[in-house]
Amino acid sequence: MTDEDLLLAVLNSAPVVDGSVIDELDGVAGGTFARRLGGSGSSPEVSRLRRVRAALHAVIRNPADADVAALAAVLNQVVRTPQVTLAGVRWEVRAPAEDLLAVRVLIAWSDIVEKHPGRLRPCANVECNLFLVDHSRPGSAKWCSMTTCGNRMKARAYARRTRSA
Predict the structure, then answer these.
(1) DSSP string for 24-51
(2) Percent of the chain with pLDDT over 90
(3) How many degrees, rounded to 5, is the angle at CA 75 between CA 95 and CA 31?
(4) What are 145-154's pLDDT values in tens digits?
(5) In a 3-state reduction of DSSP, which class is residue 111?
(6) Which end of the chain has fewer surrounding CB within 10 Å, N or C?
(7) DSSP per-residue letters across 63-103
(8) What is the pTM for the complete model shown?
(9) How many Å apart are CA 49 and CA 99, to the nearest integer?
């Protein structure tokens, strides 16, 4: 799993299904979800993932009003040490076990924001709770999925146009 996949998996772990948010980090399912991502699935780990997800949602949706203190708190006990190898420099991350997965998510977020500024965004469908990383050349992708939200929004726009015509 790439860092981008990890980030999007956590960001998109609270989808809206039939008008209700389904939290994949809730209860026993949260532990299973964390294990699928390479974590231990412990309650403290899932709790930290939930907090990081909420903080990232706020930062991405409304950066001007976001409080990054919740994100910074996850990194309080983290140490990144460079390891020189024949393939280059690799960074070893040391943190409490229950923080490692959340730390990986934050590092992935930071990398995406740095390498692809403005390309990590929420789906343009206001009824959707998902995010996307726009890899299109013009940077104009709007929807988490063209087959679901994109199709739905285009159909609604077409219906509005034909009704008013």
Answers:
(1) TTSHHHHHHHHHHTTS---HHHHHHHHH
(2) 73
(3) 65
(4) 877 786 677 7
(5) helix
(6) C
(7) TTT--THHHHHHTTT-EEEEEEETTEEEEEEE--GGGHHHH
(8) 0.88
(9) 8
